[in-house]
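Many introductory courses stop at the sequence. We go one step further.
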Amino acid sequence: MSEVVTGDAVVVEVRVAQAPSRAVAIVIDMVVQYGLLQGAYLILGAFAVISDSAMFGAVMTVLVALVLVGYPVIFETLTRGRSLGKLALGLRVVGDDGSPERFRQALFRGVAGVMEIWFLFGAPAVISSLVSQRGKRLGDIFAGTIVISERAPRDTGQLIVMPPPLAAWAATLELSQLPDEVAQTARQYLSRWHDLSPQVQHEMGVRIATQVSAFVSPAAPPGVPPHAYLSAVLAERRRREQARLAQRAGNGLPPQGPQPPHQPPGPYQQPPSGPYQQPAPAQGPYQQPGPHAQPQPNSQVGAPYRPPAAPAPEPPKATPGGFAPPQ
């Protein structure tokens, strides 16, 4: 595992791709490129009898440059960091801050790859990868990128628990349009929630929750804190995935209606750390006590009747998206 610092000064853990998997991905890409070059040579060779030899050499030189440089640049730009070899091995190129690879970075990697992989038979790439703590080859150093593995096992040591007041609402959510990348961003935010200052907690929470709400319906109840909203969405998403897996395995039908948060046996029975366990600020309808609230401890039996206290002041105005502001 390695840590990257995003533009929001948030530390995110990523799994750097290992050298063997990167080598296999490079070999797959080289085989594809070699096949494209052979096909281009055969096609041009068919027209060589009616064309000038100098023209043939010029066109072949251009095609070689397009295949060796254009292939990785075009694929990694269109697929946001994945060539055919990386796609087969579950790898992706990202920036040093975890952002998606840009065209400029793909171009630097492609040009450097021609020199260090094709012309020098990969020797500089191997040496650089062994020296670098993140396994960077020269192209990654010039472009400011790293190669990560997307097929790493998910971290299940921290269980996201469904906030009880949102269980009934979460059971009605439409989650089929929520991308995995957005859900992973929300999961990383919740895992790092305690490491952030209160202001950053709220600002990042509102931004990520607003992004999630664009793919999830219905909207959150008014006054719900961002971290509680994200916890409810991810907990319900996990519950439905577990139900589908259980149904496929023939272990029963998926449960109907809102369910209490699942606590598997073992060490996960202890309350996990994370923002979704902390009591939310007492503001907004999400935190108001119900009609069955217990009386205060200092109340006395037979005490004279006293009129109810004045109503509490209205909570601060909710932030964009209907999420409760910080305390």
